[in-house]
Design a protein that fits this description.
alpha/beta; 4-stranded antiparallel beta sheet; 19% strand; disordered N terminus
């Protein structure tokens, strides 16, 4: 392995220097509870104080649309860029995704209104304590009973039970997935293949009742970023399309509506060289004492062989501590990475050692994760490019 540079960070990164998500006041987990509480749904609290009530609310979540990416692409996204000042109730401030900044975790935070330590989807892959295997929480492989894994009701379900018209408008592919069931179910699901049809139907669902909570989703911007990078023409073309979709939806809002355009995470491009991509599978030092490698390249859960936890923490901190925030499970919990608390059922899903990238680096695994190791664009950690997401607002 190439020698890591020591001049950027003379000492290992202090855990206190990690920029925590704004759980309880400005994270994705606070969004739907605030919107639903403002509609009178009982049992929920409006913790994002900047958001004014609306009778009809639509959340359009664009996978991979980070705050910094919107700011940097005025030409490709003129409509979205024009709304930057509206973000977070006119403060012009972004939300934070939550840790890790990855799709399964963020969608669960949005839908349940809970931080990762409570809803229990704290990463791309995590260990299932019942089986000892890694469980991919995006693809739900190997299959795991969904309700015991995430037992809390979604905000959509609470809204539906309170008489609010709740609806999700997305690709038919997601209609029956376990992730949808545990994170985004409640009310009615409407599957449409065309993104334009989704925008039109979302607007129609808003108009279907005096009080409505509607969610719609677009995934392809994220896919373009992963495959080609956020500096690519393909990604910029996708952003232009997203901009038109958002404007199409905004122009159809029925009266007394609010549209919020947000995202699950941002993204960073990582160069393909040994300095920026550290291959776990080719590094005997990092592998020593490790039973399972979970998470993803910029947000790793490291599961040690029993009894080797302290040794693994020491080695990872010595080798990577100048480029990653390296924490033990208990240190990460105490620091609030996963929220103010971690449920007992979630505790052992977290790595014995947790590594969150500070620099433009990845911990790849070329043999066990060949597809993930080949991605250009990546996300997961707490840097602004990954963590900050917009909350762009249009009202009718």
């Amino acid at each position: 392995m190439s020698q890591l540079s020591a001049w950027d960070h003379p000492e290992p990164l202090a855990l206190a220097s990690a920029p925590l998500p704004e759980y309880g006041s400005g994270s994705l987990a606070d969004l739907l509870p605030t919107l639903a509480a403002n509609m009178g749904v009982p049992g929920l609290t409006a913790t994002i104080g900047e958001l004014a009530p609306a009778d009809r609310v639509c959340v359009f979540l664009v996978d991979g649309l980070g705050w910094e990416q919107v700011r940097a692409h005025r030409d490709e996204a003129p409509f979205l860029h024009s709304l930057l000042g509206s973000s977070r109730g006119g403060t012009g401030r972004p939300l934070t995704a939550g840790y890790p900044a990855t799709t399964a975790t963020s969608l669960a935070s949005v839908g349940t209104g809970l931080p990762p330590g409570a809803h229990g989807l704290p990463g791309y892959t995590v260990r299932n304590p019942a089986t000892g295997e890694l469980m991919n929480q995006l693809r739900w492989q190997p299959w795991t009973p969904p309700r015991p894994w995430q037992p809390y009701p979604t905000v959509f379900q609470l809204a539906h039970d309170a008489g609010v018209h709740a609806a999700q408008v997305s690709s038919p592919t997601f209609a029956q997935t376990p992730l949808t069931k545990v994170a985004l179910s409640g009310g009615t699901f409407h599957g449409r293949l065309s993104a334009e049809e989704r925008m039109d139907l979302a607007a129609a669902q808003l108009a279907a009742a005096d009080r409505a909570l509607v969610y719609t989703y677009y995934a392809e911007l994220d896919g373009a970023g992963h495959r080609y990078g956020v500096a690519s023409d393909t990604w910029r073309g996708q952003l232009m399309y997203v901009d038109r979709l958002a404007q199409r939806l905004a122009e159809q809002l029925p009266p007394r509506s609010a549209l919020y355009v947000t995202a699950d995470h941002g993204m960073v491009d990582i160069p393909f060289d040994e300095e920026h991509r550290i291959d776990f599978d080719a590094d005997w030092e990092l592998r020593a004492g490790v039973a399972l490698l979970g998470g993803e390249g910029r947000a790793r859960h490291v599961y040690a062989v029993p009894g080797a936890e302290n040794d693994v923490l020491t080695v990872w901190r010595e080798v990577l501590g100048e480029q990653f925030w390296i924490a033990s499970r208990d240190e990460a919990i105490a620091a609030g990475w996963f929220g103010p608390s971690v449920d007992e059922r979630v505790y052992a899903r977290l790595g014995d050692v947790i590594a969150a990238a500070h620099d433009d680096v990845l911990i790849t695994a070329s043999e066990r994760e060949p597809k993930e190791s080949a991605l250009v664009g990546n996300h997961g950690s707490m840097t602004p490019a990954e963590q900050l997401v917009p909350l762009l607002e249009v009202r009718s």
